[in-house]
Amino acid sequence: MEQQAQFQQYVHEVMEWGKQLREEGSADVEELLVRLKQHEGEWSEEEIYDIQMTVDVLYEKAMQLFQERNEQMTGQTEESTSEKVEWQTQFQQYVHEVTEWGKQLAQQSGARGEVEDFLVRLAQHEGEWTEEAICEIQGMADALYERALQLYQTEEELEEKTADVTDEAIDEEMLRQEHDRISAGGHTLPPLPYRYDALEPHISGEMMQLHHTKHHQSYVDGLNKAEKMMQKARETNDYELLTHWEREAAFHGSGHYLHTIFWYNMTPKGGGEPQGALLEQIKADFGSIARFKQHFTEAAKKVEGVGWALLVWSPRAHRLEILQTEKHQFMTQWDTIPLLVLDVWEHAYYLQYKNDRAAYINSWWNVVNWRDVERRFEQASKLRWKAF
């Protein structure tokens, strides 16, 4: 989950700060650094609290040492002045790391207001850090940490409630939406037909949640805004920015529609091979299932930059085709209907597979929902234009 990634970033920043303390001769920090380095897996709430308490104790000791050195600086040589500068530099580094953590936390809507105030306070500071200012910053950072912990717990509870939604309820909602007309700017994020962690170990729950609630939501928001702005252009007869909003609609709209297909193209009990008419069509157009999979896999691996691999039905050619698309809307064919889509943007796999796109693709085949692809093919193949 995103909170785990944020805390891992916090751990990274604490380790950098701890290494600086160790160089200053603080023996107490060594135990913390070893513990952070050796930790494996997700951080439990108890571990997070314990780490924060340990950091607070170390910070207090560092502050005492800082104050002692400040007192020793009075009336001393340039060497003492150099030590003071060094401590100011170290605290400035701490401020930088806390700022980066704060920017990540600001992405959580529930904490955005408090974080923005904190970031403004840091950005507006000028000159050396006094003891009073340091205490103030530490207090604000501690309060934000507690707020982040509350958000983490709340989101965990919401996820548990979401898990109680049955497949039948989701199917009923999707069926209802089939008969709805969406007005301009009225698109919504579709529900997943499974839990965020249901596709593990092939696709992690943390990655799915981030992909669905953040990335896909941004495409929905972008599409709605573009459609509303074009509606406004029609009402006001002002088309000066039309090109910009058409491009936004193409990018975000394609992202929204492809992701909606993508979620339903996967299932916890997926994999295997297609059946029925789709199986026969694949054999006719590609020679065999093995050849089809190899072609599709290579197309996905070789997408330049970010984009998708697509299995489509061509109503004009009356056959299946494998296409690539860059981003969501570039370098592909018109007049085709997507049946099976694979997202190879880095946000789809990087948290789990790093830069190993091939490993992600090979693992993805284990969650392909062939029943969904078969249903899409059944409907799409009814559409046949005159062949040219």
UniProtKB/TrEMBL annotation:
GO terms for molecular function: metal ion binding; superoxide dismutase activity. Its EC number is 1.15.1.1. Pfam families: Sod_Fe_C (PF02777), Sod_Fe_N (PF00081). Residues 274-376 form the Manganese/iron superoxide dismutase C-terminal domain. PROSITE patterns: SOD_MN. InterPro entries: Fe/Mn_Superoxide_Dismutase, Mn/Fe_SOD, Mn/Fe_SOD_BS, Mn/Fe_SOD_C, Mn/Fe_SOD_N, Mn/Fe_SOD_N_sf, SOD_C_sf. It comes from the Bacteria. It is an enzyme of class 1 (oxidoreductase). Residues 187-267 form the Manganese/iron superoxide dismutase N-terminal domain. SUPFAM superfamilies: Fe,Mn superoxide dismutase (SOD), C-terminal domain, Fe,Mn superoxide dismutase (SOD), N-terminal domain. Keywords: Metal-binding, Oxidoreductase. PANTHER family: SUPEROXIDE DISMUTASE 2 (PTHR11404), SUPEROXIDE DISMUTASE [MN], MITOCHONDRIAL (PTHR11404:SF6). Belongs to the iron/manganese superoxide dismutase family. This is superoxide dismutase. The lineage of its organism: Bacteria, Bacillati, Bacillota, Bacilli, Bacillales.
